[in-house]
Amino acid sequence: MSSEVLFATTRYDKYDVSQTLPAKFERLIDAMNMEDVVKGKWTAVKMHVGRNMGYSTVHPLFVKKLVDKLKSYGAKVFVTDQTVSGARARGYTEEFLGVPIVAACGVMNRYYYEKYVDFKTFKNVDIAGHIHDAEVMIDFSHVKGHGVCGYGGACKNIAMGCVTDRTRQQIHSLEGGLEWNEELCIHCEACVNSCNHDANKFDTDNRYSINFHHCTYCQHCVKVCPTEAIRLNVNSYEDFQKGMALCTAEVLKTFKPDHVFYINFLMNITALCDCWGMTTPALVPDIGIMASKDIVAIERASLDSIKFEDLLIPGVPHGMELGDHGHLFERLHGKNPFVQLKELEALGLGTQEYTVKEIK
Ligand code: SF4
Ligand code: SF4
Q1: Nearest CA to ligand 2 atom 1
Q2: What pLDDT was estimated at residue 223?
Q3: Looking at the CA of 230, which ligand is closest?
Q4: Which of 28, 82, 231, 268 has a CA 20 to 30 Å removed from the CA of 204?
Q5: Nearest one of 116, 154, 109 to 130, comparing CA atoms
Q6: Cα torsion for 147, 152, 158, 162, to the nearest 10°?
Q7: What separation in Å is there between the alpha carbon of 219 and the centre of ligand 1?
Q8: Percent of the chain clearing pLDDT 90 (strictly above)
Q9: What is each CA distance from 82 to 85, 98, 116, 232, in whole angstroms?
Q10: pLDDT of residue 49
């Protein structure tokens, strides 16, 4: 069985305000039929408020439209993110939005509920207290590329944004894919010189280290190494995405069925995540907004809408080489972004089969 994904496109038939994206967004929210679910309930709008100089997060006008709709349905709304210190700089203010903007783990960053998983180095899912206590969540995500998992959307917004720093660090500790054998290494540095992504170096104690965010698994280092001291373990880069999916599943367990709605904002789709605190030119033309009750379906529909043939070359950050296979994000980051979807699906959170209903 397939799940429905609502879609408001940026394209328009006539030059009229009713055909613009904010107007379509209002109609898309109505079509989500949230009123009966959110009425009288504490409803968390989980978004990434951005950092530093970034300007590619969701435009405040759209957040305001969503908040106003939810309030008109009788919801008790608040906007939240793991940290909200960057909110004001991007125009997300309580004065403008008319609702509280709260740090998900509280002002002291110590309010969370512990759950446990057992996946390699990932053990503690510390669910942010205000997410745990919310009765409904709107997972409002800006879609973009991501260095470690290829793609950041609805899953990443929950897994890395609804938990404590300890949990984020444990998920990051799953990064991997290349192994260095100290005994075989003769320190010729051919590996470092062959890397076009600034992803590897020798630390001051002469130990080899890899920045897996930058690494695209191009294997230049593997191939130039004269002693076979670097080995590729092709599957272990997938662990990060598996960890994200596991974490997302734990967070979603705190909500009753059908009490989480997903909205993916497919605008300003950049190569790198908003957590970098900077914005590069868009990778593809703006697409629009999608919504669904199925996290897997919306992620699949979002990825399918971002096509390699639409690539805008200035959106490829300086120094990054494009690979020759897979999704645009895989060509960019060397990581298959569909891994997280398969994991979410295997955990019973939805289906990659979807139908699109366009909101006119
Ligand atoms: S696999 Fe490629 S990107 Fe990764 S460290 Fe080696 S040379 Fe650099
Ligand atoms: S290329 Fe191989 S031998 Fe040379 S420094 Fe790198 S890991 Fe060591």
Answers
A1: 225
A2: 86
A3: 2
A4: 231
A5: 109
A6: 40
A7: 5
A8: 88
A9: 10, 20, 19, 34
A10: 97
The residue to mutate among 201, 213, 214, 215, having the most atoms of ligand 1 within 8 angstroms of its beta carbon, is 215
Mind listing the pLDDT tens digit for each residue in 43-56? 999 999 999 999 99
- Mean pLDDT of the residues in the chain: 95
Average pLDDT over residues 223-240: 88
Pocket lining for ligand 2, CB < 6 angstroms: 185-191, 208, 224-227, 229-230
Q: What is the pLDDT of residues 243-270, one digit of tens each?
A: 999 999 999 999 999 999 999 999 999 9
Flag whether pLDDT at 302 surpasses 90.
yes
Residue to mutate (ligand 2; options 180, 183, 186, 207; most atoms within 8 A of CB): 186
* pLDDT given for residue 234 in this prediction: 63
Q: Say whether pLDDT at 235 is over 80.
A: no
Atom of ligand 2 nearest to the CA of 192: 6
**Minimal CA–CA distance to 149: which of 306, 336, 344, 341?**
336
Q: Encode the chain in three state secondary structure.
A: CCEEEEEEECCCCCCCHHHCHHHHHHHHHHHCCCHHHHCCCEEEEECCCCCCCCCCCCCHHHHHHHHHHHHHCCCEEEEEECCCCCCHHHCCCHHHHCCCEEECCCCCCCCEEEEEEEECCEEEEEEEHHHHHCCEEEEEEECEEECCCEEECHHHHHHCCCECHHHHHHHHCCCCCEEECCCCCCCCCHHHHHCCCCCEEECCCCCEEECCCCCCCCCHHHHHCCCCCEEECCCCCHHHHHHHHHHHHHHHCCCCCCCEEEEEEECCCCCCCHHHCCCCCCCCCCCEEEEECCHHHHHHHHHHHCCHHHCCHHHCCCCCCCCCCCCHHHHHHCCCCCHHHHHHHHCCCCCCCEEEEECC
Residue 228 CA: nearest ligand 2 atom is: 2
Q: How close is the Cα of 330 to the center of ligand 2, in Å?
A: 26
Give the pLDDT mean for 82-97. 97
Banded model confidence at residue 135, pLDDT cuts 50, 70, 90: very high
